Amino acid sequence: IVAVESHEEGKVLGLLEKLCNLNGRRLFIWNIAQGLRLSTNTDSIYGTQELAAALRHIQASPVNALYVLIDAHPFFDDPMVVRLAKNIALKADVVPRVLVFLSPEMELPDELNRYAARFSPGMTDREAILRLLREEVHAWLGSEGGRLRGERAALDALVQHLIGLTEGEAR
């Protein structure tokens, strides 16, 4: 189980898609509105709208895949959901399925914490932060006109303070 806390849903899904492509795994995505579907398909798997039903499907599947469950945290108070997720985690060495819970914020139940790793994507790359700052300055100058002046030390301090934030937080 991997718990990902991020407001950058699209970017996390893109990262997971690349990871799956590199490792020969399939990527499935679940959310309450669509149910469970293969990432490359718009059609959901029949009968998987409810999280417990999707987890039952995942548990029965022999597919070596990553299953991203978006905004599943409101369902963690359901003992059936917790038990099914735990059953999947316990069998990870037999059938290599990985559950990825993706939400802006979440608290995993104690029963799942032992089997979970946490991941918070951040912008730790200095170049990515500088690129973001250039975009923002360019957008501001385009609307205001003129030229931006400042000290290099102030820019370096700003970049240093933004390291570790997500793109949305840094903007």
Structural class: alpha/beta
Note poorly predicted spans.
Answer: none
Q: Tell me the fraction of residues in β-strands, as a range.
A: 15-25%
What is the strand arrangement across the widest sheet?
3-2-4-5-1-6
Main sheet attributes: strand count, strand direction, barrel closure: 6 strands, mixed
Number of helices: 7
Structure description:
Helix content is 44%, strand content 17%. With 171 residues, it is α/β, with parallel strands linked by helices. The protein has a 6-stranded mixed beta sheet with strand order 3-2-4-5-1-6, with helices on both faces. α2 (51-60) runs parallel beside α3. The longest helix has 19 residues, at 126-144. The two termini are 30 Å apart. The model has no long low-confidence stretch (mean pLDDT 88).
Keywords, please?
7 helices; alpha/beta; 171 residues
Which helices and strands occur, and which strands form pairs?
Elements: E1 2-5, H1 9-23, E2 26-31, E3 35-38, H2 51-60, E4 65-70, H3 79-90, E5 98-103, H4 110-113, E6 117-119, H5 126-144, H6 152-162, H7 167-170
Parallel strand pairs: 1-5, 1-6, 2-4, 4-5
Antiparallel strand pairs: 2-3
Helix pairs in contact: 2-3
